[in-house]
Amino acid sequence: MNPHYIPPDRFPMELTPRIRVLGNYFFNLFLVTGSEKSALFESGISGVVDTVIQQLDDLEIAPDYLVVSHPHSDHITGLPGLMERFPGAEVVCGRGAQEFVSHPKAGPALVREDKFMSQGLEKMGIRPGRPALETIPDLSRAVSVDSPARLNLGGGTDLLLTPAEGHSPGNLIAQVEKDRALFCSDSMGFHYPGRMFWPLFFTDARAYVKTIDLIAAAAPDILAPAHQGPITGDRVRKGIDLARRTTLDIIRRIRETQLPDDELTGELFEESYRDEFTLYTRENILNCTRLLLKRARESA
Fold this sequence. Notes:
Layout: E1 13-16, E2 19-23, E3 28-33, E4 38-41, H1 46-59, E5 65-67, H2 73-76, H3 79-85, E6 90-94, H4 97-102, H5 106-123, E7 143-145, E8 149-152, E9 158-163, E10 172-176, E11 181-185, E12 190-192, E13 196-198, H6 205-218, E14 222-225, E15 231-232, H7 235-256, H8 261-272, H9 282-298
Helix pairs in contact: 1-3, 6-7, 7-9, 8-9
């Protein structure tokens, strides 16, 4: 048994009086409530959306904002279900997210990956409440953020949204400064709890490192990736430092290797494709690994 596993009955998890973690161990969504409004940061996948809806119903909260951290399949394919259940909520995303999901290759890949992840949850006994997604999420009416923006939730509680480059088009991180909490999504990598972050610099390696530095400068007391639970206390600084060091080591390794690309890709894939990461298709993670090689070399 994974000692870091958080059982489903622990959700929603209260981090502070204003912040709760919804979803499950594998897909974390963050509910921030002020005195007047609430915001849900992250959308998860279709296989977890009914769990999230039930959690919100139990809390008697209908979010005023649905914030998409970035348009990758595990962060956006739950959005259609959330939009259907909460039609009055304003959808917020980063600039470039709409273009990404509308791309002729990206859109169908989102649908395929969502189905695989939902099936993976079911194999572990976490039954999705609905069929997997069949059409790409619609961001045509979303509010697009291309600079730091604040969602005023009332009572002095704001959700600060900041564009963060390096991982994905339309990528956002978020902070509740009142609680010194930062939602980093995948901006520091894929979270293997208690072990490491695996680097995910898919758009720009240099910008990705700068984003980690931006997160470090914020000095959060609570660091919340989108997967496998939050990080608190002394582990926050250690986690950020480890994510930065691992990223730089992988970049250096790619630049300095004497191995053929296929062999290096295979090595990196085998190192990363394990445990929680196997919820994603092998094809997806292989393509992601190839992107790491490309972006590391572009940053030289």
